């Protein structure tokens, strides 16, 4: 398949993209950071420089690539989890505006959408942003992946698992790859 990944250099993307390439999918990976283009090339994908908030460019780059699937793994989170509250409005913007732009682009070329969500209830505007993301993806016939809290290398919980719901980041990437043929649905990506 032809797969367009937004968020390919994030905690899931860095693990997911090599799995997709190993399965012989043709992959394009979007980043807003020019410094990450070389990293994407080394993964064996077509790197695409684009900011998800530039709607016209997102639609253009996605439709030019003509993917079968658009995978939305974008977040805007800090390296230090204690700073998450400071980043909540930026992350909520990605869940709303970024999701809308990616879904519009996918629909413009009849691609399916698979999008990252969370397996716990967020309070306030964070919860409203998650609801918007999920409603938008499902209305487009897509798949919502509700991840537990990630643990493992490169996560907030590198050495000690967090409370449930949780999932090891490597398992989350494998289960994301395995969701490519899932019908329109919400899938919980958590440990039993």
Global morphology: globular
The percentage of residues in β strands lies in 15-25%
Strand order of the biggest β-sheet:
3-2-1-4-5-6-9
- Quote the average pLDDT: 96
Characteristic key phrases:
single chain; 192 residues; alpha/beta; two-stranded parallel sheet; 40% helix; globular
Question: Concise description?
Answer:
It is built from 6 helices and 9 strands; from the N terminus they run E-H-E-H-E-H-E-H-E-H-E-E-E-H-E. It has helices spanning about 15-20, 35-40, 55-65, 85-110, 125-140, 170-175; strands at about 1-5, 25-30, 45-50, 70, 110-120, 145, 150, 165-170, 185-190. It has a 7-stranded parallel β-sheet with strand order 3-2-1-4-5-6-9, with helices on both faces. A two-stranded parallel ribbon has the order 7-8.
How does this model look, in words?
This protein is α/β, with parallel strands linked by helices and about 190 residues long. The chain has six helices and nine strands; from the N terminus they run βαβαβαβαβαβββαβ. It has a seven-stranded parallel β-sheet with strand order 3-2-1-4-5-6-9, sandwiched between helices. Helix 3 packs across helix 4 and helix 4 runs parallel beside helix 5. It is globular, with a radius of gyration of 15 Å.
What order do the helices and strands come in, and which of them pair?
Elements: E1 2-6, H1 13-22, E2 26-31, H2 37-42, E3 46-49, H3 55-65, E4 69-72, H4 84-108, E5 112-118, H5 124-139, E6 143-147, E7 149-151, E8 166-168, H6 169-177, E9 185-189
Parallel strand pairs: 1-2, 1-4, 2-3, 4-5, 5-6, 6-9, 7-8
């Amino acid at each position: 398949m032809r797969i367009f990944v937004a968020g390919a250099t994030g905690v899931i993307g860095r693990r997911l993209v090599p799995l997709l390439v190993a399965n012989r999918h043709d992959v394009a990976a979007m980043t807003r950071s020019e410094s990450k283009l070389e990293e994407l090339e080394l993964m064996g994908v077509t790197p695409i420089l684009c900011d998800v908030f530039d709607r016209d460019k997102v639609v253009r780059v996605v439709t030019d690539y003509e993917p079968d699937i658009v995978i939305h793994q974008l977040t805007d989170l800090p390296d230090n989890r204690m700073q998450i509250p400071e980043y909540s409005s930026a992350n909520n913007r990605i869940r709303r505006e970024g999701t809308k732009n990616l879904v519009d682009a996918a629909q413009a070329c009849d691609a399916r959408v698979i999008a990252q969500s969370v397996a716990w209830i967020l309070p306030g505007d964070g919860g409203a942003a998650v609801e918007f993301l999920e409603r938008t993806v499902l209305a487009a016939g897509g798949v919502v992946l509700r991840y537990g809290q990630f643990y493992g290398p490169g996560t907030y919980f590198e050495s000690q698992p967090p409370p449930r719901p949780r999932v090891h980041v490597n398992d989350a990437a494998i289960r994301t790859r395995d969701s490519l043929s899932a019908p329109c649905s919400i899938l919980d990506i958590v440990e039993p």
